[in-house]
Design goal:
The complex is a heterotetramer of chains A (299), B (334), C (329) and D (333). Chain A has 299 residues and is mainly alpha-helical. Chain A has helices at 2-27, 29-51, 82-118, 120-135, 138-147, 155-183, 185-192, 197-234, 244-253, 263-291, 293-298. Chain A has one domain: MetI-like (MetI-like fold). Chain A has 11 helices and no strands. Chain A is globular and about 80 Å long. Chain B is of the alpha/beta class. Chain C has one domain: 3-Layer(aba) Sandwich (Rossmann fold). Chain C has an 8-stranded mixed sheet with strand order 6-7-8-3-9-10-12-11, sandwiched between helices. In chain C, strand 7 (179-183), helix 7 and strand 8 form a beta-alpha-beta unit. The two termini of chain C are 28 Å apart. Classes of the chains: A mainly alpha (299), B alpha/beta (334), C alpha/beta (329), D mainly alpha (333). At the A-D interface, helix 4, helix 5, helix 8 and helix 10 of A face helix 1, helix 2, helix 6, helix 7 and strand 2 of D.
Chain lengths: 299, 334, 329, 333
């Protein structure tokens, strides 16, 4: 019986939250646009590759065609459809980005919480380590790691490598959040009430952290897209993959800067990157508003 | 026959280290310095002192929220830091705190019910969520929030300071404590509401029979609390208890030069009286730095009556005509 | 006192703020005269708009606020709100100086105390030498019982709260202003420091013949220093009178309730009685008299018509529909 | 003074620790740079033994030694300035770095100064005009430019300003990329120096576009919080001239917190240099990194990486010292 009522409560609170979410989105059109863009890309990555066929065959006669019904975004240097490449590339870009964000946030969360909550020597060691990592410039570090690897990376491995550079900053931020929440008097009250450490961590501190973590999850996604496409673009990862970064590099190699015929091929992935990053940023602005407790109470 | 005090501080000291990094020099603050104090069941003690005198630290030491540098805290005769886990858990339930700022002492992202329930459930005061809800509503009714059910589902940001203060009180009482430390519990409230909050605290004491350690910087508030609820006033200066007396005797006839100065400085809301009063007698206006070590009596640098002995020998707290005073020359003043 | 000249005259002052919930009216149609040479105590609970009022006397409002209507006339002729930029700058500090509630934070953390003094003087007087400013500062700092040589060379964070308070007071007197406004000058100080600070203020008043507006929530402090007292509630003045009238013969139910709710270290506590109920919401103030929801004497008219501030005698005013009939014990 | 020494020691430890971490990080990863290089040479047609010998000649340690010995050899090399040799350029890595560093420093320092000052001025401006059109525009624009990778910005800058508008266009050679006009002889001539600046314009613009948004946002929020401080209103109350308040009271205090993020920004801009120098064929450290990637010229990459890390730590040090000069409170912390 109690379980049923628990689920009912959960369900109803979820519904209220979702309603509130859309209410804020409706109020702020720019953020709503961001949400739609992100949603569109997710749909494209999820079902796009099943619908859009990608012919890998080379057909020199079809080189650098302008957009047409047959090729909505034209073709590349080998006569292959640009749109299909964009669609097929989006899946890997997004999977890796979300995986990276998940890994980064999990690692940063565990380390940040442990550091802030346990404190003492654990804190000193972990934060010294994070600080050193923070000073190492992230993209060059990625490059040096990737070049010393020989194999072609699976999305999970790729995400694991990308999260090496993302965690320190976030772990530090989470730690300082934990520390500042820990200083608040309601934690002292909870200790005084004899509540367990588990409750204090998950029942009192965590609910205050969640919005912050969620926002950083999105920031990690943005960061992961940046580095991932960058690695392909710079040529640190195999050229045969279908990825927006590969497309940009290929276009530049084909003289896209001077040859307007290549522009459709160059600008398509560029536009996608701009769009999706902008979408995430705008969406995050909406979340900021949603999580702002002051606005929340007035909704 | 002396009964075992409910809670007792025995030669309690707490030293905080400030500053100090890889190369910087550490400084130490003796926030609480060799303090002994007994509080009996159901008794009220008002602890008065200026900011930085260590009164909050003493409160936290008594609650077991801080580990003492030396000395011990005894709950019903047992050292709290030598208790086994079960006993300590029980102590935690029995000793509660009320903070100054009601907003920061309740989790802003949880509803009032979510803040009240876990402690009751964890201490098995209630057996189910439903029972917790019932009891929470009952408590809110007791502190005068009606209808209670309305408040339980609210978030803290939608309530006034006065209401929040009541909720904090209800939460402290929800675990049936027998000792509550109220740390500047009413100083954030509007002046008009303060005595109302004090009255409520004392009313509930009649029902729940707990003891209060009422920490405040305001002598007038302390006096009201003690005159209305009975008990003692304790004056603290730079980590030391300087004077203890029943009722408002400390205020009517202060024995320690510091208490005298404090009382002379406290303004009185009556133009005729306040304009006739003299300035407190003090040698120096500035409070010594907390990191400074003062030999002898801590007040000797500012005391108008200080003599050679005051700068050399720490005055023991002793009984002088029914009063506890830590001054070499207490007899001259009482 | 009645023969005295009015130095600041405030008429129908209204200050509003834009807040997420709407428009917050912090000061609501306030009228007040301040006489030359007096110490006027302005008393109100937190949130009654007293700080906003103090700032508005200098035409200062923070970034979300604006002065909606009203007039502040200084010295009979100077209409503060129609002054040009340059004249306004001259009016500030030279005519009226203000010690902020956050006196602790009213010094620029990256500047030494002496540089503050230099800035202040040079903003108003040209061709003053650094030595001259130093001489003046030293004189004033001595008056507030600070050691000038050490204080002048220090950064704000190196001074204690009480020292900062006195430094700011010395700075307020650099240009010999006619009026000094003090916004909660004592509330962050320890009792002992408070007492001495009030003594210093009394000395300064004697020395310079200052007019002071002493703003506080603490009736006890006002009892000690003020000649006249104005009681503020919900953004407006509800009662003004000589200090003894206010404390012994107050006419407004709010003043009465306030006096009855404040414990003291002397006297009987059994007569004390809390005043329940929250302050009026400045975004949605109640109609009629702002105090009616908490007033035990409220009748129908109080709920509908807002009482005017009525003159009772030369210096006393009250804003209550029933002041003539109400008899407090 | 003591504080400065302390800070210097910390910086040295940081550099040492990060080199160590990276050295071991690479070794615990699957794969090994030595094997990768050998494989690369084999792919280029060398026979395995020859390839292995070539690689051995260029690394400053012996790959068959135990790890700790390799590490000590490597560190000894780093300290004596021996960072191995390049396969592609057939030259010591140190020499390549000496050629590349000035170009990178030139671009990055100018860009950083421009974007920092631009961000401060704009940030303060929109903080004063809060809620206006510019404010709303910049709060979106700044966060978007921050999220768009520099390689995207760089390509767009070339296409729009170089190719389309022909502002940076050479009729014979196409869009202006590279360090300077190759037809000129390097030297202290006005012509050469102005060519250097002309060629640097687009890369600098790309850096500024990708980084100044952060400064705008940070300066705005910092200014807004300073504007809420009592000492600003107190300065107004004292009748100080507006200019004085804006510069010495608002500006100076609002800039302070930005110094703490300068550290992260400097690391960021170095990361971006890999992309921007690649797109613009600019002969700095970043360009050498990307050029060495294809040929798996590992020693060049790790040498460049080392230099960038040191540069970041040193710039952090400078930012910190500057900060302590500007904020009297820091010295007593």
């Amino acid at each position: 019986m109690i379980n049923v009522s628990k689920y009912k409560r959960l369900l109803s609170s979820t519904i209220t939250n979702i309603k509130f979410f859309f209410k804020v989105l409706r109020r702020n059109r720019v953020s709503f646009a961001g949400f739609l863009i992100v949603l569109a890309f997710i749909i494209m990555a999820a079902i796009g590759p099943e619908i859009v066929q990608y012919e890998r065959g080379v057909d020199i006669r079809k080189r650098f065609l302008p957009p047409s019904w047959e090729h909505p975004l034209g073709t590349d240097y080998a006569g292959r459809d640009t749109f299909a490449q964009i669609v097929h590339g989006s899946r890997e870009v997004l999977i890796v980005a979300f995986l990276t964000a998940a890994f980064t946030t999990t690692v940063a969360f565990v380390i940040g919480i442990a550091s802030g909550f346990i404190g003492g020597k654990v804190d000193v060691v972990m934060m010294t380590f994070a600080d050193i990592f923070l000073t190492i410039p992230s993209f060059p570090l990625l490059l040096i790691i990737v070049t010393s690897l020989r194999k072609i990376l699976s999305p999970i491995e790729m995400a694991a490598i990308l999260s090496i550079v993302g965690w320190p900053a976030l772990a530090r931020a989470i730690r300082s959040q934990v520390l500042s929440i820990k200083e608040r008097e309601f934690i002292e009250s909870a200790v005084c009430l004899g509540l367990s450490k588990t409750h204090i961590l998950f029942g009192e501190i965590l609910p205050n952290l969640l919005p912050y973590i969620f926002m950083n999850l999105i920031l990690s996604v943005i960061g992961a897209i940046y580095s991932q496409v960058g690695l392909y673009f710079i040529g640190a990862l195999p050229f045969n993959a279908t990825n927006w970064g590969v497309m940009i590099q290929a276009a530049l190699n084909q003289g896209a800067l001077v040859n307007p015929r290549v522009w459709w091929y160059l600008l398509s992935p560029l536009a996608c990157i701009i769009l999706i990053q902008t979408g995430f940023i705008l969406f995050m602005h909406a979340l900021e508003e949603i999580f702002n407790p002051r606005l929340r109470t007035e909704a | 026959m002396t009964e075992t005090p409910l809670i007792e501080a025995r030669n309690l000291s707490k030293v905080f280290a400030v500053g100090g990094g890889m190369f910087a020099k550490k400084r130490f603050i003796r926030a609480v310095d060799d303090v002994s104090l007994k509080i009996n069941r159901g008794e009220n003690v008002a602890l008065v002192g200026e900011s930085g005198c260590g009164k909050s630290t003493l409160g936290r030491l008594l609650l077991g929220l801080l580990y003492p540098t030396s000395g011990s805290v005894l709950y019903k005769g047992k050292d709290i830091w030598r208790m086994n886990e079960k006993e300590f858990k029980e102590f935690r339930r029995k000793a509660q705190i009320i903070h100054q700022d009601p907003y920061s002492s309740i989790n802003p992202v949880r509803t009032i019910f979510q803040s009240l329930a876990p402690a009751m459930i964890q201490h098995k005061i209630v057996q189910s969520r439903e029972e917790a809800f019932k009891r929470a509503a009952e408590l809110l009714g007791l502190v005068g929030l009606n209808p209670p059910e309305d408040f339980l589902s609210r978030y803290p940001s939608r309530m006034s300071g006065g209401q929040m203060q009541r909720i904090i009180l209800a939460r402290a009482l929800s675990v049936n404590p027998d000792f509550i430390v109220a740390d500047e519990a009413v100083s954030m409230l509007d002046a008009c509401l303060r005595i109302g909050a004090l009255d409520l605290m004392l009313d509930l004491q009649k029902k729940f029979q707990h003891a209060y350690l009422f920490i405040t910087h305001d002598l007038a508030i302390a006096r009201y609390f003690i005159l209305k609820g009975g008990g003692r006033i304790v004056i603290m200066y730079l980590g030391k208890i300087v004077e203890v007396g029943d009722g408002d005797s400390v205020i009517q006839k202060p024995a320690h030069p510091y208490t005298q100065a404090l009382i002379a400085a406290t303004p009185i809301p009556d133009p005729k009286i306040s304009r006739e009063r003299e300035l407190p007698k003090l040698k120096s206006l500035d409070v010594p730095r907390l990191t400074e070590a003062i030999p002898g009596c801590k007040f000797n640098t500012r005391c108008p009556y200080s003599e050679k002995i005051c700068a050399e020998v720490v005055p023991e707290i002793r009984e002088v005509k029914g009063r506890l005073v830590a001054c070499h020359f207490a007899e001259n003043f009482i | 006192m009645s023969q005295q000249k009015v130095i600041i005259s405030v008429r129908n002052l209204t200050v509003e703020f834009r807040v997420p919930r709407g428009i917050l009216r912090a000061v609501d149609g306030l009228d007040l005269d301040v006489y030359e040479g007096e110490v006027l105590g302005l008393v109100g609970e937190s949130g009654c708009g007293k700080s906003v009022f103090a700032h508005a006397l200098l035409k200062l409002v923070d970034i979300n606020g604006y002065i909606k209507s009203g007039k502040v006339i200084f010295d009979g002729t100077k209409d503060v709100y129609s002054l040009g930029k340059k004249e306004l700058r001259e009016y500030r500090w030279k005519d009226v100086a203000l010690i902020f509630q956050g006196a602790f934070n009213s010094l620029n953390p990256v500047m030494k105390v002496f540089d503050h003094m230099v800035d202040t003087v040079l903003a108003h007087e040209k061709n003053v030498s650094s030595e001259e400013i130093k001489k003046r500062s030293i004189e004033l700092l001595k008056m507030v019982r600070l050691d000038p040589e050490t204080v002048l060379g220090r950064y704000p964070h190196e001074l204690s709260g009480g020292m900062k308070q006195r430094t700011v007071s010395a700075m307020a007197l650099l240009l010999r202003p006619k009026v000094l406004i003090l916004d909660e000058p004592t509330s962050a100080l320890d009792v002992l420091t408070q007492k001495f600070f009030i003594r210093i203020l009394k000395d300064l008043r004697k020395e310079f013949g200052l007019t002071m507006i002493f703003i506080t929530h603490d009736l006890a402090t006002v009892a000690e220093i003020a000649d006249r007292v104005a009681i503020m509630y919900g953004g407006t003045i509800v009662e003004i009178g000589n200090v003894e009238d206010i404390f012994y013969r107050s006419r407004h139910p709010y003043t009465r309730a306030l006096l009855n709710a404040i414990p003291s270290i002397v006297g009987d506590i059994s007569k004390l009685k809390p005043l329940p109920g929250p302050l009026p919401d400045p975004v949605n103030p109640p109609p009629g008299c702002g105090f009616h929801p908490r007033c035990p004497y409220a009748i129908q008219i109080c709920r509908e018509v807002r009482p005017e501030l009525e003159r009772i005698d030369a210096v006393s005013f009250v804003a209550c529909h029933r002041w003539r009939e109400l008899k407090f014990d | 003074m003591r504080w400065v020494i302390r800070r210097l020691i910390t910086a040295a430890i940081t550099i040492f620790a990060s080199i160590t971490i990276v050295f071991f990080l690479i070794r615990v990863m699957p794969g090994n740079p030595i094997d990768v290089m050998v494989a690369q040479l084999i792919m280029q047609g060398l026979d395995p033994e020859e390839a292995y010998r070539r690689v051995l000649a260029i690394v400053p340690f012996v790959p068959t030694d135990p790890l700790w010995k390799q590490y000590i050899d490597y560190m000894r090399g780093v300290l004596s300035g021996d960072l191995g040799r390049s396969i592609l350029y057939a030259a010591p890595v140190t020499q390549i770095l000496i050629y590349g560093i000035p170009w990178t420093v030139f671009l990055i320092s100018i860009s950083l100064i421009i974007s920092f000052s631009l961000g401060i001025v704009l940030g303060m401006y929109i903080a004063y005009k809060r809620g206006g059109i510019l404010d709303r525009f910049f709060s979106v624009f700044s966060s978007v430019t921050r999220a768009i990778p520099p390689y995207v910005i760089a390509v767009l800058v070339i296409i729009i300003l170089g190719v389309q508008l022909k502002l940076f266009w050479d009729p014979y050679r196409g869009p202006i990329i590279g360090p300077y006009d190759p037809r000129l002889k390097p030297g202290f001539t006005l012509e050469f120096i102005s060519s250097v600046f002309y060629y640097a314009t687009l890369p600098i613009l790309s850096y500024v576009l990708t980084t100044f948004g952060i400064w705008v946002l940070q300066m705005k929020s910092s200014t807004v919080s300073v504007l809420g401080e009592y000492y600003i209103m107190a300065a107004e109350a004292r009748g100080l001239p507006e200019r004085r308040i804006v510069i010495s009271y608002v500006g100076r205090n609002a800039i302070l917190p930005l110094f703490t993020s300068l550290a992260i920004a400097i690391g960021h801009i170095f990361s971006g240099s890999v992309f921007i120098e690649t797109v613009f064929s600019y002969p700095g450290i970043g360009r050498y990194i990307s050029a060495s990637i294809g040929g798996r010229d590992y020693m060049v990459i790790s040498g460049c990486f080392l230099i960038i890390t040191i540069a970041v730590v040193l710039s952090n040090l400078i930012a910190d010292l500057l900060y302590s000069k500007l904020d009297p409170r820091i010295r007593f912390r």
